[in-house]
Every structure is written in C-alpha cells, then in structure tokens.
Amino acid sequence: MHGKKSPSINHHDLNKWPELATLIRESRTAILGVQETHLDESHVDSLRDMYRNSLIIHNSADPDRPTRSAGVAFVVSKAMVNTGAITTHVIVPGRALAMVIKWREGQSLTLLNVYAPNDPGEHPPFWEAIAEEWNRLGLAKPDFVLGDHNIVEDALDRAPVRFDDERAVEALRELRETFDIQDTWRQTHPNTKLYTHRQPNQRMEYMHARLDRIYVARLKAKYVFEWGIIHTGLSDHAMISVRYTPEDAPEIGPGRWTLPLFLLNDPEVIGPAVGLGMTLQDKISTIQEEGNDANREIQTLWSDFKKKIINIARERSKLSKGKMKARILKLR
C-alpha cells in the first residue's frame, strides 16, 4: 500500500483507508493482505473504531519505524467471514504475519502475509527466520502465502527479462518446499507475462516485475479459481486476487427469479396479472366448495399462475430493455 496517504483525496494520515474499504466492499473481498501499511498502534486503533461495523484489522508494525517503514496487515470483511474465529501470530515483526481462521466442523485456514526486504542479501535470513518461527509456534503448514516477495523465481516474471539473485531465490524455494506451496497462477499460465509492479530506471525506462504473488498449498490448488489483477491507484503495486472454495462447500444454485422492479408499475404487466389473479381466485373458490382433493388442485393452479406471470414479465422485460437501448443509442 506504500504508506497511508492517497493522491486522490486530502492528505490525512489515514485517507487511503476509505478507498480501501470501498474496494473491499465493491469487489466482495473476504480477506485482504496489505503490505507497507506504515501504521502504529494509534493509527490501528483509529481504523478499528472507524470500521468497527464492517472490518477487522490485524497489523504488525515495524518495531523501529512503525510509521515510516514496512508493516503488514490482514483486513477481513465482517460481511464475508466469521471474524470471531480468528487468531494471528507475528512471525517477523512488520514483515510477516500469520492468520488462522477456524472453518466449520473443526477445519481451519492458515494464511501468511509477507513483505520481503528490498535487499536480496537479506532474503536468506528472512525466509529462514519465517521457517524457524513457524516451527517454534507449531503452526500447521499455510494454505496461502501472499504478499510482496520483492524477488521473482522465473526470469519470465521480469521485463526486461533477467534472473534474480540466486541465493535469494533459493532461500524462497526452500521455504516453499518446507511449506509445500506452489505458484499456482504460474503453473496454470506457464507462458503468460503479467506484472504487478513497475519502476523507472536511471534512464527513465520502466522495468516491470511480478513481485506480488499468492502461493497455494498443493492440496488446495484445485480449489482456487478466478485469478485477477486490479490496478487500484492506492499503490504502485497492483492487487492480485483469487477465489477459493473448500472441497465440501455447499453447492449454490442460480437462485430464484424475481420480478424486475421497473415492471412493478407497468400496466402491460400489472393488468394481465390482476386478471389472472381474479380468475385464479374464482377457480379456488369453486374447488373449495366442491371439496374434492382441493389442496392438490389449488397447488397446481397456483403453480400455473406463477409461471404465466413470469412469462408475461420476461417478455415485457425484453421489450422494455430493447426500447431503453434504442433510446440510449439515439442520445449518443
């Protein structure tokens, strides 16, 4: 996120967060990992109070310069996640934060949010420190490792193409093997060039890199889908996203059809509906008077009535939308 201030609104210490909260709501993001938060405890307390009805914020600050350097956070939507079943663990202060969410029926989901050092020489001790602290805490292997890794494993992930520091890359790969996680996006798109960050060099030529990645546990890889990348304007890094559905998640169908609201006052729909309703009412009254298996017959008539209303509304909706499109094209 590269600090707290946004160029699009006035320069208050926390003025990026309204835009971030809007992004989470509109994109229906359940869990967001943020790097370079630059938040101290007073800032975090203010944000928690500001978004107490919508977001849960867990932050790990740089212990030496909390408002100037590093900082990683998980931002969780209360509308999407059971936020009462979350625990966090600081793995490397300001650089690596773990979060465990209790799933239903005793299951859990473990995530690690990282902001790796800029200096490749600092990478081997950084990734080693994560493995050591993870082992000391006795945490389960992470299901997702996400964040700004500040190196790439594949030369294809840089433009101009080049290999990163060998010792730094090897240290990251050793951690990946320990955690049994993989770059699922790259495996799905082996030849695709996609970059999340760009930076000018001394000749003011832009260099591009896919520094921001989401690694997925091998056993969970087949349950992720809809990879995305969004240039939000909140950072010089793009936001990457992925959807995850557990193996035993309930199947959700297309839902029930509903009458478009703009047809509620349309006489071409309401008139026939009233007529059909009066006819239905007369038939029901006759059936009740006769009393022969009335309930079953009434249910059949009611079902037929609904189908007729739906057909009328759908046909009218198609016609109305066509007219609206014609008007819009005429105004252009």
Distance between the termini: 39 Å
Structural class: alpha+beta
> Helical amount among residues, as a percent range?
25-40%
**Assembly status:** single chain
Q: Number of helical runs?
A: 7
Q: Per DSSP, what share of the residues sits in E-state strands of 2 or more residues? A: 15-25%
Low-confidence stretches: none
Protein described:
This protein has 332 residues and is of the alpha+beta class. The protein is 35% helix and 23% strand. It is built from seven helices and 14 strands. The strands form four sheets. The protein has a six-stranded mixed sheet with strand order 4-5-6-7-12-9. Helix 3 packs parallel to helix 4 (166-179) and helix 6 packs antiparallel against helix 7 (294-331). The two termini are 39 Å apart. The model has no long low-confidence stretch (mean pLDDT 88).
Spell out the key features of this protein:
332 residues; alpha+beta; six-stranded mixed β-sheet; elongated; DNase I-like protein
List the helices and strands and how they pair.
Layout: H1 17-27, E1 31-35, H2 41-50, E2 55-60, E3 72-77, E4 86-92, E5 96-102, E6 108-115, H3 123-137, E7 144-148, E8 158-159, H4 166-179, E9 181-182, H5 184-188, E10 197-200, E11 206-209, E12 212-217, E13 224-230, E14 239-244, H6 267-290, H7 294-331
Parallel strand pairs: 6-7
Antiparallel strand pairs: 1-3, 2-3, 4-5, 5-6, 7-12, 8-11, 9-12, 10-11, 13-14
Helix pairs in contact: 3-4, 6-7
Protein name: DNase I-like protein
Organism: Auriscalpium vulgare
